[in-house]
């Protein structure tokens, strides 16, 4: 078999030319397109990775913000609960204080009114008792009572050591005085005041049960009203002294 070397060489040259042409016009663009595609894919992968990282970072940031918000919300809620509780306690304390203050004022007013009522009642009772005593003694006036009045009057005169009388004197009487009482007063005055020459008895209704000596600048008097007035004053003073410790004790309570 004969080999046509010219044909072989031509075929080889054609094959080499074909390879060069393929490499020049086909493989090069394809490889460049593949490289460009790979670069684009790599760029997209990088972009996707960057986007994923950014999304993850944003997610982490949002999670931290949410956690911070939850923490802040919890703090604010706790603060709000604390403030509401403190306000409620202050309001309750203020209301309790106002109620207690009103109760204390009411009790003080009640105690004051009660003390005033007790004082007024005691004074009224004492006044009525003394008034009844005056009326009873006035209604029971007799000769024996006249002598007792005369005796009390003379004790008042004898007790007045700085008094003096002489000449004619007048003795005022609030009620009718019997002869024995007149004699007792006459003798008693002459004993106390030896210079007395005459004793005249004159009615003085406003004296009530009592007698009054009048001579010059000397005036000595004893009346049942004066005695009862003194007794009334002592009774009222005693009642006032008794009521003061009660009021002080209520104030301490």
UniProtKB/TrEMBL annotation:
GO terms for molecular function: proton-transporting ATP synthase activity, rotational mechanism; proton-transporting ATPase activity, rotational mechanism. Residues 45-79 form a coiled coil. InterPro entries: ATP_synth_b/b'su_bac/chlpt, ATP_synthase_B_chain. It is found in: Cell membrane; Endomembrane system. It is a single-pass membrane protein. The chain crosses the membrane at residues 6-22. Its main location: membrane. Keywords: ATP synthesis, Cell membrane, CF(0), Coiled coil, Hydrogen ion transport, Ion transport, Membrane, Transmembrane, Transmembrane helix, Transport. GO terms for cellular component: endomembrane system; plasma membrane; proton-transporting ATP synthase complex. F-type ATPases have 2 components, F(1) - the catalytic core - and F(0) - the membrane proton channel. F(1) has five subunits: alpha(3), beta(3), gamma(1), delta(1), epsilon(1). F(0) has three main subunits: a(1), b(2) and c(10-14). The alpha and beta chains form an alternating ring which encloses part of the gamma chain. F(1) is attached to F(0) by a central stalk formed by the gamma and epsilon chains, while a peripheral stalk is formed by the delta and b chains. Component of the F(0) channel, it forms part of the peripheral stalk, linking F(1) to F(0). The b'-subunit is a diverged and duplicated form of b found in plants and photosynthetic bacteria. F(1)F(0) ATP synthase produces ATP from ADP in the presence of a proton or sodium gradient. F-type ATPases consist of two structural domains, F(1) containing the extramembraneous catalytic core and F(0) containing the membrane proton channel, linked together by a central stalk and a peripheral stalk. During catalysis, ATP synthesis in the catalytic domain of F(1) is coupled via a rotary mechanism of the central stalk subunits to proton translocation. Belongs to the ATPase B chain family. This is ATP synthase subunit b. It comes from Desulfobaculum xiamenense. The lineage of its organism: Bacteria, Pseudomonadati, Thermodesulfobacteriota, Desulfovibrionia, Desulfovibrionales. The gene is atpF.
């Amino acid at each position: 078999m004969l080999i046509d070397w010219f044909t072989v060489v031509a075929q080889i040259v054609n094959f080499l030319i074909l390879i060069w042409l393929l490499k020049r016009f086909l493989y090069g663009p394809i490889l460049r397109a593949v490289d460009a595609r790979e670069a684009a894919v790599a760029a997209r992968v990088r972009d996707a990775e960057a986007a994923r990282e950014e999304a993850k970072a944003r997610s982490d940031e949002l999670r931290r913000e949410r956690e911070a918000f939850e923490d802040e919300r919890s703090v604010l809620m706790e603060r709000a609960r604390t403030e509401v509780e403190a306000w409620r306690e202050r309001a309750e304390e203020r209301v309790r204080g106002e109620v207690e203050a009103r109760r204390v004022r009411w009790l003080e007013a009640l105690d004051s009114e009660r003390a005033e009522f007790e004082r007024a009642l005691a004074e009224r009772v004492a006044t009525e008792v003394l008034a009844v005593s005056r009326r009873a003694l006035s209604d029971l006036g007799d000769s024996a009572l006249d002598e007792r009045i005369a005796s009390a009057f003379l004790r008042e005169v004898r007790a007045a050591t700085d008094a003096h009388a002489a000449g004619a004197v007048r003795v005022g009487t609030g009620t009718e005085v019997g002869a024995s009482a007149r004699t007792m007063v006459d003798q008693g005055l002459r004993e106390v005041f030896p210079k007395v020459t005459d004793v005249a008895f004159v009615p003085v209704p406003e004296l009530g049960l009592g007698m009054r000596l009048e001579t010059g600048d000397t005036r000595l008097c004893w009346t049942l009203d004066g005695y009862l007035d003194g007794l009334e004053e002592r009774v009222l003073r005693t009642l006032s002294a008794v009521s003061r410790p009660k009021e002080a004790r209520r104030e301490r309570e």
